[in-house]
């Protein structure tokens, strides 16, 4: 932040507060773990300490309740249990986004497990799973990072699965030399029973004066992002903003083929044929094999009745795409306008022959 002095930049703090759940997602509860389980318990309130001991005693006995940890043999089953619980809980809230979120989390957890960076305990009552916890393991920083929980919300037991699984994970972390148990973002009330401290994040938007780009141009690191935005705007028929995006890209990278082509297309739609010619001419000088640019350039010449230039350009395109009926038809029309009826007839004949076959039309 020292490189962005307040006198030169505007800073806006953006909250991340979930009003529906009354959760501040800029607050990150965490626990600095001591060297022993008993030392950790001694820092808790007596009621919480007694609950944790009682719950863990129940699962350690293994008579009614037990906790297993995902292994190579059980991982697929255990991950399905977790994600199914999570899916059921969030179906209504997540709506159409849910399948994609489940796929993304499945892929992430699989990758973490393959690297030995996932701790996935499951709590059972007999053969019925009650809950599951997914915790990422940062071996370098010696940290457990709680990522996802799921439970069977149709069951009420004297041993709540969420508390028991966190207690089990905390004990396992301490026994394995983990230094930090991180609940990540969100100050949900239940996290505070575990004796957490808080890390408070800042969510900042930093803008240059007047919301203008520094130096009046894009930062080169933003060019690809802006180009992608311009292409999306173009596809959505938001032509004004799309052209502005293309031109901002060209200010920084004037030899960008995608920006030259997109901007040329927009100028054609505006009937700015001279401007379109400049874009397509520059593009074919950079990429002589850019066939669509040659055809668009020919169309721009033809629109200005520059028939000789159009004919030359269509012929260049046909060197690259000799089976394109549209180009032969265009060539025939401009040759006819030039009074070259013999050449025009030959081009019409070629177009007619090709039109009996699938043609490669430009879109």
Quick tags:
363 residues, alpha+beta, Aminopeptidase, eight-stranded mixed sheet, two-stranded antiparallel sheet, 12 strands, disordered C terminus, BioF2-like acetyltransferase domain-containing protein, Acyl_CoA_acyltransferase
Q: Mind telling me the C-alpha Rg?
A: 32 Å
Query: What's the total number of strands?
Result: 12
**Which outline best applies?**
elongated
Query: What profile does the largest beta sheet have?
Result: 8 strands, mixed
Strand content: 15-25%
Succession of helices and strands: EEEEHHEHHEEEEHEEEHHHHHHHH
**Mean pLDDT over all positions:** 94
Q: Give the full name of the CATH homologous superfamily of the domain at 34-178.
A: Gcn5-related N-acetyltransferase (GNAT)
**Structure class:** alpha+beta
Query: How much helix, percentage-wise, in residues?
Result: 40-55%
- The second-level CATH architecture of the domain at 34-178 is 3-Layer(aba) Sandwich
CATH class of the domain at 34-178: Alpha Beta
* CATH fold category name of the domain at 34-178: Aminopeptidase
Number of helices: 13
Question: Stretches where pLDDT falls below 50 for ≥5 residues?
Answer: 359-363
First-to-last CA distance: 47 Å
Domain BioF2-like acetyltransferase: 46-191
TPR repeats: 257-290, 291-324
Keywords: TPR repeat
Pfam family, one: TPR_16
């Amino acid at each position: 932040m020292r490189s962005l002095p307040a006198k030169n930049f505007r800073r806006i703090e953006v909250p991340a507060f979930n009003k529906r759940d009354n959760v501040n997602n800029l607050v990150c509860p965490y626990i600095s773990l001591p060297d022993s389980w008993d030392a950790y318990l001694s820092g808790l309130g007596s009621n919480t300490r007694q609950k944790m001991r009682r719950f863990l005693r129940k699962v350690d006995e293994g008579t009614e309740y037990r906790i297993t940890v995902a292994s190579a043999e059980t991982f697929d089953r255990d991950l399905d249990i977790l994600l199914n619980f999570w899916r059921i809980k969030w179906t209504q809230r997540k709506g159409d986004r849910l399948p994609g979120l489940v796929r993304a989390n499945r892929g992430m957890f699989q990758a973490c497990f393959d690297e030995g960076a996932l701790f996935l305990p499951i709590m059972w009552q007999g053969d019925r799973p009650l809950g599951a916890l997914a915790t990422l393991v940062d071996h370098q920083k010696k940290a457990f990072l709680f990522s996802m929980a799921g439970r069977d919300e149709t069951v009420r037991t004297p041993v709540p699965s969420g508390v028991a699984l966190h207690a089990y994970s905390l004990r396992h972390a301490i026994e394995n030399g983990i230094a930090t148990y991180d609940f990540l973002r969100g100050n949900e009330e239940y996290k505070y029973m575990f004796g957490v401290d808080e890390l408070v994040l800042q969510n900042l938007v930093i803008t240059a004066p007047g919301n203008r780009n520094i130096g009046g141009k894009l930062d080169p690191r933003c060019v690809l992002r802006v180009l992608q935005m311009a292409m999306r705007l173009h596809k959505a028929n938001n032509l004004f903003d799309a052209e502005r995006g293309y031109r901002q890209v060209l200010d920084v990278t004037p030899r960008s083929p995608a920006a030259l082509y997109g901007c040329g297309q927009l100028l054609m739609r505006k009937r700015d044929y001279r401007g379109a010619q400049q874009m397509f001419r520059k593009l074919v000088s950079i990429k002589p094999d850019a066939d669509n640019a040659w055809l668009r350039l020919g169309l721009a010449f033809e629109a200005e009745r520059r028939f000789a230039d159009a004919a030359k350009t269509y012929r260049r395109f046909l060197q690259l795409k000799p089976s394109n009926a549209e180009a032969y038809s265009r060539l025939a029309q401009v040759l006819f306008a030039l009074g070259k009826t013999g050449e025009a007839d030959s081009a019409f004949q070629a177009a007619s022959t090709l039109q009996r076959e699938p043609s490669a039309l430009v879109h």
